[in-house]
Every structure is written in C-alpha cells, then in structure tokens.
C-alpha cells in the first residue's frame, strides 16, 4: 500500500472517501492493517465532487459512473453550471448527463455497455420509448454510422409528426385522404386538368393525398387534391383520356418507387450529418494530410462546382464559417465576400490551406442532392472519398453513391430488454 486510504469518522467506524479499490484489494489479499488518513466529515456535495475528480484523474470514470456522480450532485441542489465548475466538466456535458440520468433505460444501457459514450446514451434517452430504435442506436454505437442512424431516426420522427398533423387537418376539413398509389386513371390530380380545388369540394370524387416539398434534411407534407373519377363526374371527356394511363402501377413498379423514396430520405438525413462534419472541418486550425493534392486535383480537373461557388460568393462556406448570410454575391463582389477575404488575410498559412480545402469541399457539397446517389461518377467518388479519408464516416447511401454497391447490413445488438 503506497498511498494511504482517506476516510472520515462514521457511526460504525471509518468511512472510505478515497481508496475504495485499494481497500477492497487489501481485504481480498487478507491484509490485517492498511494505512488510513482520517479527515473531517465532508459535506455531501463536497464528498461527491472530490470522488468524481479524484477517480477521473486516476483511472478515468466510465460514462455511467460520471453520469451517476452528476446526478448525485444535482440531488444536493447544484445546477448544471455549478456541477461543471466543481468537477471541471463542460456544462453541456453535465446538462446532457442529467438528461441521461432521467432515463432509466439510458442509465441501464450505460452501465451494461462500457463502449457507450455520453452522446450514445443521450440518444438512447431521446428514443427510450422505442425499443427497436434503442437496439439500432446501440448497434450503431458499436459497429459505426451512429450519427447517421440517429439523424435518420430524428428525420423519420419529424416526418411522421408533420404528416400526421397534415392528415388530421385534411380529415377535420372533411377531405378524404387516399394513398397516392390509388391515383391512376380515371382518378387524376385536379391541377393536371385546370380544376380549382376550392370549387371541387362539392364533387363526390373530391379527395387528396399527401405529397412532398423537399428541403435539406426534411420533407414537408403538401396536400395534392384529386378527383376519384374525372370521367364519371364529368370533368373530362372520355376521348381525352391520356394515353398509357389505363392501368394501375404493378407491384414491381410500386416496389421500385418505394426504394427510390427510401434512398432519397436516406440522402437527406445524411446531408445533415455531412454538413455538421463540414462545419467542424472548417473550424480546424490546420489542413489534413493530402489537402494540397486534393485542391490542386479539383482545380486542374476544372470542377464545375468550383466556378459556380465563385460566382455565387461561396454561400455554403460562409454559412458554415458563421459569417453573414443573405443574398449571394456574384463574381466575388460584395461586403459578405469581403468578410471572407478578411478572414483569409488574417489566417496563418496552415489555417489558410485548411480554408482552401474547406472551400473546395463546400463548393461540391452545395451541388449535391438526392440526385447524387442516382448518378454515381468519378467526381462524386473523389469528393466523398476524400471526406472519408479525412475522417468522415460515410452512410450507407453515401457509400452507394461512391461505389454503386449497397453496403452490408450491420449486425444486431440485443437491447437486453
């Protein structure tokens, strides 16, 4: 025993404050005596704080142990800020940890799987009412693509909530909501025939399906009004029936359309994760290995996205750097690009090279969309492949955009429920 155990007087004898592992080891070895330093009885919050700091500095606490310690300090009435100040932890980590402590499932998961980080257990707390989501999170935390998995779940949840609200509004307004696959001739969209939806409300065939307006990382529901039978209700003459629309979609056609829709959603979720990574990349102080060659390759190849970014005033780069957003500046003129130029002028040589690489990546990123995975090419492979080489973890759909081959499914991890 090289360092005495620290203990304080208790009702039934000394209570160990520091040195629990040493004490247990001595008991297991059958030692009759060990050196102990007696101190005054500490206050509750002081005791927990000291134990957290001491253990972190020695062997390092696990995520579960650290969260449990923060939870004990919170029970003494300390705020997240006070806990962070006492323990030297980040306030955001403490706040997240207290949310994890409030979820029984997340707390148990952190205790069971030592590979789970605070970020992992926070995601479990976020989805603790969905056992399948928890299983997917644990599997992704162990095997990879964690950020993509969680972002997809968030997008699906937001998507489902938005579509449920839109459907409820239509039903409340007395509109029959039908599946899009049912809109085959003689059912037809009203706007295809110049029919005003407001004037069509009284028609027995009045209905609607929920379509989509797409944005980055989301799809917004929009009502598309239809008539169940434009021929029977006299909107269109039978001789005007469109050629080739006399049959319903085959099951193969429907399955193919579902695959496309699913992959489009995967791409939009991946875009959120990818741009978060690019934001962190643009904040670095130095460029990674190979930056000079990558930038020169894009310049020599005459990548079209670079010219488009130059003409538009590097909008995505300015956004990710936190500079003023707004109208794009054509041909590098304007106050907004001037702020970017000031940043470049003040940058160190290493930072300047990093900004150069970030500018090229942002130029490419600004031209990506769901069309990217459908049109695999050497340019896309070079762009996404370089990000992967520099530490970005490609999602399944991004890997498909690079190789044209679907990746293998990740193995399942039992939730233990």
Automatic annotation (TrEMBL):
Q: Which InterPro entries does UniProt cross-reference here? A: Chromosome_partition/occlusion, ParB/Sulfiredoxin_sf
Task: Please provide the Gene Ontology terms (biological process) for this protein.
Answer: chromosome segregation; positive regulation of sporulation resulting in formation of a cellular spore
Transmembrane regions: none
Q: Which residues form a coiled coil?
A: none
User: Superkingdom of the source?
Assistant: Bacteria
What Gene Ontology cellular-component terms does the record carry? chromosome
What is the name of the protein in this document?
A: Chromosome partitioning protein, ParB family
